[in-house]
Amino acid sequence: MVNLPPYSPLSRTASIIGTGSYVPQRILTNTELEKIVDTSDAWITSRTGIKERRIAASDEFTSHMAAKAAREAMEQARVQANEIDLIVLATVSPDTFFPATACHVQRLLGAKHAACFDISAACSGFLYSLEVARQFICTSTYDTVLVVGADRLSSLVNWSDRNTCVLFGDGAGAAVLQYRKESRGIITTFMRSNGDYGNILCTPGGGCALPVTPENFVKRFNTIRMNGKETFKLAITSMQSAALYALQQAGLAISDIECIIPHQANIRIIEVLADRLKVPMEKVYINLDRFGNTSAAAVAIALDEANRNGRFKAGDYVLMVTFGGGLTWASSIVQW
Ligand code: ACO
To answer: How far is the CA of 327 from the centre of ligand 1 (A)?
Structure first.
């Protein structure tokens, strides 16, 4: 059992009324990576489950991918740009430090009536953003919120570091949330962080701590650093506790969940998690073989794919669970 803080259910429910996603055209296969670093398709496949990932074009920014995913979600939701009250965008690879990438997306969509901001919670960003959106909707501040998870980690990867460059890809996923009278929607969300572990997975440079200088650039401080083994262990324990917490909060058993969408980082992490939660792998949605780890976009892209593939029926419970740099971890249960 997890130690629960006091929980007061809000009187309004936020429903996901549309989803969308976008990945760049360019496919980078494991075999191609063999030409870039000392690696092999066999190593990457057996250690991670990843076969290929998408890489954005040089003029394709996080906001461009985000806007494409958002348009799909808005179309499915039948929501016009001028109806959006708020855009919450999760990313650790923004177009610019400021303006927020959410503002760039606002401009691309023409969502003139929206307030916009970014959330930085690495791979947990989409679930953090979903919860922020839910809070605004449930407190009656806003009715229609666009939530986007978008990352272009190819611009943060050190392409000579085989420990990390094989893992990541680019993409975006989006959801439109709206207040609906019926009670189906986001049932509960759990979020936690532990800054003590910030240095096991980070981009140390580029901010004010290690600004972009010729010296720091040569040391590649502006690229991703990761302690893979430590991240692996913490990913499993944090996602397990997040999933159990959400279930407990919602008063549901794991057998009530129709589909689990975990963060798409590594198939071995997901298999151990499924085993610990006693969930058959058929209930777990996987697309990391095609897209690698797309950070804040990963769960959002998977949610959209599962939705469009007809994986959910009305009333099904869907559990999303993530972990990422920070460290951050989160889980969310949605009744479809
Ligand atoms: N190709 C070939 N060999 C490699 C590669 C590669 N791409 N990468 C590492 N190796 C080597 C290592 O150098 C090491 O060699 P050595 O023993 O001679 O030193 C050997 O393989 C074993 O390395 P390990 O780190 O033990 O490999 P492990 O089985 O732990 O797998 C991995 C590494 C895949 C990174 C794993 O630890 C992992 O998935 N960790 C979690 C990573 C993760 O999920 N990160 C994303 C977090 S989400 C976010 O917030 C962005």
So the answer is: 18
**Residue 13 contacts residue 185 (beta carbons within 8 Å):** yes
State the CATH architecture for 186-335.
Answer: 3-Layer(aba) Sandwich (3.40)
Q: pLDDT tens for residues 107-139?
A: 999 999 999 999 999 999 999 999 999 999 999
Architecture of domain 15-178: 3-Layer(aba) Sandwich (3.40)
15-178 and 186-335 agree in CATH topology: yes
Among this protein's residues, is 263 annotated catalytic?
yes
- Confidence (pTM): 0.94
- Exactly one of 263, 266, 287, 307 is catalytic; name it: 263
Domain residue limits, the chain: 15-178, 186-335
* Nearest ligand 1 atom, CA 328: 50
Query: Is residue 156's pLDDT more than 80?
Result: yes
